[in-house]
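I hope you will forgive my troubling you with a question about protein structure. I should value your view on which stretches of the chain appear to form regular backbone elements. Here, with my thanks, is the record as I have it:
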Amino acid sequence: MSDSTKLAHSLIRQLIESGVSDFVISPGSRNAPLAIALSEAAAKNLIDLHVKIDERGAAFFALGISKASNNYVAVICTSGTAAANFLPATLEAVHGGNKLLVITADRPARLRKTGANQTTDQVGIFKQIKTHDISTDTDIKVYLTGDPVHLNIQFEEPLISSDKSDWLAGIRITPINFSNDIKGKLEVSTGVLVIGHDRGGFTKDEIDVFAAKLKWPIIAEDPISFPNSIPHASIFLSDQKIAEYLRPDQVISIGRTTLSRSVNSFISSIKKSIVIDPRTKNVDISREADLVLGSLPDEVKSIETSSETWLTVADSAAKELGNLTWSEQQAITSICDQIVDKSAVFIGSSRPVRDIEAFVHPRGGVEVFANRGLAGIDGNISTVFGIAEKFDSTTAILGDLTFLHDISALTNSSKSNIRIFVIDNNGGGIFSTLPQSNADNFEQVFGTPHNLDLIKVINGFGIPAAKASNLDQLNKLILEPIKGFNVVVVSVPSREENASNLKELIQRVSRAVRIGINLA
C-alpha cells in the first residue's frame, strides 16, 4: 500500500468516526487517494458522496449542507487554482459560523517555490482559519472544534495503490455534539430585543426560550422565523420621530444586524446596548456595546415590556401596506405567505432579504437560511442545492444577478425538490435605492442590465422554467406542488419604478403611523 493511500485511509476513517457523513469532491489527480477512499466508503453506505465539477460551487454546496445539518461537511479538491476557488465559501463560513471542513490536496512541500506544475503555497491560503499542513510522515489526528478547518494534505507519488484491504472494518461512529453555549445570568430592566438574520448561530428554539424569559418586544430581520416579532419595523423606524417615540432604555442584539440602516440607527440611539454573539470571541472581537456576551444566558431577570405600543404602530403600517400593486414587494410577500410548513427557505442577498424584513408578515413553520456571513451574491444556487439535500422541499428567492452569478451550478443540477423564484428586474435593483442611483453612467457600472431571456437560459440547461408577470400568474405557480427542480422567473417593474414606489411607500407609512399615534 502506498503512503498516500495510507494517509487518505487514516484521514477519512477518522472523519467518519467523528460523525462527518457528507463529503463533496471535485475531480482531480492529486486528490485521487481521497476520491478512491471516499468512493469505497460510499459503497459501504457509510457516507454520502457528492461530486461537483466546479470547486467554487462545490464549496458553497458543502456550505449549504453544513447549514442544514449543523455538522461538518468536507469539501475536497486537487492542488493549485482549485484550492483558491474555495475562498469565497470559506470566508462565508468563517463569518457565518458554519462548520466547513476544507481539504486541499497538495504536492510534497519540497516542490513549493520550484516552479513545479500545479504547485503553489497552499499553507495559510485561507488566512482567517488555521491550516494543518499534513504529509505522509505526519501522525495524523483530526480535532473538530466547531469552527471552519483547513487540512492541506501533501500526497507523494504513487497516488494509487492496488491494495484491497478492508480498511473500514470495525469502524465506530461517535458523532461530536456541537451544541451552543447557554449559560450565565443576565439582569435587565425594560427594552427591546433585536434578532439579526444570522441569529448569532443560535437556533430558533434557543432564542425563543430566551425571548420568553426576557418578555420584551421583538424586532427580527427574519420575520418568517419569529411569528411573535413586530412586523414592518425597518420601515416605520426610518422616521426619526417614530423612532424617538418608541425608543426604550435598553436593547439586546442577538447576532449582527446587517439589513436596514433604520434598525441600526435605532440601536445606536438607545442608551444601553447588549450584544449576544459567539463570534465576538474570535471573528468580531471589536464589536462595541455596553455588554458583550458570547453565549445566551440561561437565567434572565427582567421587567416585562409591553408590546402594545409597538403593535399599534405596526398595525397602522400594515394597513397602509395592505394594498400593494404588482411589484417585487408584492411578489415576495405572496411567496413567503404561501410556503408550505416543514420546508426550507433560502433568501438571496441584496433586495429580497430586505423586502422580507420590511414587508412580509411574521410567520413560522419553516427553516430559513441565507448567506449573511458576508452577504455575497456568489454561490447562492449551489448553497440552495446543498440545503435541499436535508429537506423534502426547498424554496429559494433570488435576484436575477444573484442567479446569474452562480449559473454554472446548473451544470450539476440537483435532483431534490426545489423551486427557485428569480426576481427579474434586469439588473442590480438594490443600487437604485442607494445614494449612487444618481451617479453618472449609473446603468453601466451599477445597474448592469443583463438583457437576457432567463427562461431560454434556464431551458438551455434542460431545466423547466415558467414566467409570472402578475400576481395571478405567480399565485398559480406557487400553489403547484414542488416536484423535482424548477425555476419561476418573476418579471417585475423596472428598477427605477421600484425605487420610486419604495420611497413613496415609506412616506405613506410614516404619515399613517404618525396620525395613528398622534405625532402628526
The chain has 18 helices and 19 strands.
